[in-house]
Amino acid sequence: DGGITQSPKYLFRKEGQNVTLSCEQNLNHDAMYWYRQDPGQGLRLIYYSQIVNDFQKGDIAEGYSVSREKKESFPLTVTSAQKNPTAFYLCASSIGEEAKNIQYFGAGTRLSVL
Amino acid sequence: GEDVEQSLFLSVREGDSSVINCTYTDSSSTYLYWYKQEPGAGLQLLTYIFSNMDMKQDQRLTVLLNKKDKHLSLRIADTQTGDSAIYFCAERDSGGYNKLIFGAGTRLAVHP
To answer: Please, which residues bridge with residue A7 across strands?
Structure first.
């Protein structure tokens, strides 16, 4: 079954700690994205990657880091520099070089601060 | 910059039609999308429309696009309790990379 798997579903962070959210896809998509969702707001783009070993900052990249060493994996690290990390994080992927650019989403990870 | 706006809530009776509205600012957008989010879940693509179309129908869903007014709507016919969710409108950023710009979402509540 093709899809996007995010783990864990729930994550708790202590102050000063870095945490890493996992995103894996088996859709053979080139492009992958990380969004942050806060209540009553739309999704905001954190980072995106159009191809392996390449990624760019989105609108709210400060306090976050990513890597793209494999096509199927795009982990997001929430660093201690992110002062308000409590949110719902969504990973997405798309074919990439396609006009429609339909993005497919994982089930999300809810991050809370202890 | 580009912006997408939606009303936050809509309440309808089961069996009635729901109409969710959206306005956007980027007149160069080529594609516009409707996504559905159920509680605690990711986003599911419902439908999309290319900017040279006025209307697209897919079973109970009808999308209307008014490019002149930059207005997009999603009509759900015969609304069911299973349609209760948050509906997001999104436009493809014409700025050169594969970015989608999302509205804040409309929460649809269906009551008996």
So the answer is: A22
Over the stretch A53-110, which tens digit does the pLDDT of each residue have? 999 999 999 999 999 999 999 999 999 999 899 999 999 999 877 777 899 999 999 9
Whole-angstrom distance, CA of residue A25 vs CA of residue A3: 6
Q: Which residues of B touch A38 (CB under 8 A)?
A: none
Task: Provide the residue type at A62 as one letter.
Answer: E
Give the largest Cα separation in chain B, rounded.
46
8 Å CB contact of A101 and B102: no
Residues in Cβ contact with A86 at an 8 Å cutoff, skipping those fewer than 6 apart? A111, A112, A113
Which DSSP string do the residues of B35-66 spell out, in sequence order?
A: EEE-TT--EEEEEEEETT-SEEEETTEEEEEE
Give the nearest chain A residue to B51 (CA atoms).
Answer: A100
Name residue B5's amino acid.
E
Which residues have C-beta within 8 Å of that of residue A9, sequence separation ≥ 6? A107, A108, A109, A110
CA distance B102 to chain A (A): 5
CA distance readout (Å), A41 to A37, A108, B24, B27, B76 = 7, 16, 15, 22, 23
Distance from CA of B29 to the nearest CA of A (A): 11
Residue B96 clears pLDDT 90, i.e. is over it: no
User: What is the token pair recorded at B111?
Assistant: 């009551």
